[in-house]
Design brief:
This protein is an all-alpha fold and 426 residues long. It folds into 3 domains: 2-66; 88-230, no CATH class; 240-425, no CATH class. 63% of the residues lie in helices and 1% in strands. It is built from 22 helices and 2 strands. The protein has a two-stranded antiparallel sheet with strand order 1-2. α5 (114-123) crosses α12 (232-239), α9 packs parallel to α10 (194-204) and α14 (263-281) runs antiparallel to α15 (287-306). The radius of gyration is 30 Å and the shape is extended.
Length: 426
Amino acid sequence: MKNIIKITSLSFAFIFIVIGIIVIPSKDVDSYTRKVSIRLFLVGLVLIFFSLNLHKKLYYLKRFKPIIDNYKADKSESLEQQFQNATISNLNDKTFSDMDDFSPYRNDPPFPNSDFIKTIFLHMFEKHPYKEDDAFPKYFNYEYGIINMPRYFNEIKDEGLITLSPPEEILGLMKVSELKDILSERTLKKSGKKSELIERILSHIDADELPIINEHYFSLSPTGKKYIETHHDYIILKQHSEWGIGFWEYQNEKDKTNGTKSFNEIILSLLNTKILEMKKAKFGMSPFEYSELHNLYINAYQLFLDEECYIDALKALFKNVLLSLSGCKNNYLIGYKKDLKLKNQEVMLNYSPIKIDSYVAASICELREYYNENILSDVYKEFIGPYNLCTYEMLREVTALIFNSSILELSKYDKIIRDLFIKKLK
């Protein structure tokens, strides 16, 4: 059914767009016909968008179809009630196994485990109190499978992880101007910091007179705070999507270590695995792969720095520099020339000059006391990429420029790399 709808919509879209392309530029049609053609052309574009969007919606619904089927067996409630009552906590293993198509790892369930989801949910309460009917981020639905947020909220409350908020935290949700209005109505002093205004209100005004305090807001309980401390690694993982490390990828590695490795050591191990996989695949290096490898080196540097492994941190930075000097950023142009049968001059219009990331250069300078030439030698030997147009001597010279804060003086080296790259195009 989905394919029929999509094909039909795209067929009409194609017809409307072709009519528009033919009629709109024509000088032999009247203004009315041209207006109709413009409208048909726009309708065609909308149909294309609709068709693609419909495809995504059906894909999304398919993702939750096993949840609905799982509850059809229970005849005590209507299907609508069953669907509303479904949460991640009461989905069984069969539901997950039926949804493997939506997991990045075929043998893993599509959603993170309940501890991860619970930790991310509780982390929001560290910022400010929430009510049951507050708007929570939509990713709890499509990333974590929480269909009924109020129900999940109550489950967390029943576990004792959140508790009624104290008056000072509830008043903390109000703006300073609103707090001053309350004080002004009672002819109380309005000057001072926000915390002082709240303290003054609670000292002089009965809590029953303040409607907001009588609303049921919830904050972390001591048990909830302890829970977050225990699972704080999940919060860090969520905050660093740039690592490109999925939850189950991290969890599997964590389980293997049995607590013998720190969080940073686990992440470094996973980043290193990604780098080695690139080397093993002997990839041709597309712009995406080039950018990904650049980011992997920067992420590795930051983690090595946290672990106070300064030599390794410097190596990660110099690998980033060497990648920039290698000429691999323009590797895709080789295929570009071959596929489109272009001349070198045409291809080189899209050539990107070599450039050293200023953040990387500044970070190298900060670690200068740990530098020695063996680092450059190791980095050069361990280069990853389809080719390296940078000589070892060039890497040494650019390193000297970095330490002298002269990384803008790269025109000499850019010409060398550019000429070598043109030879590769032949």
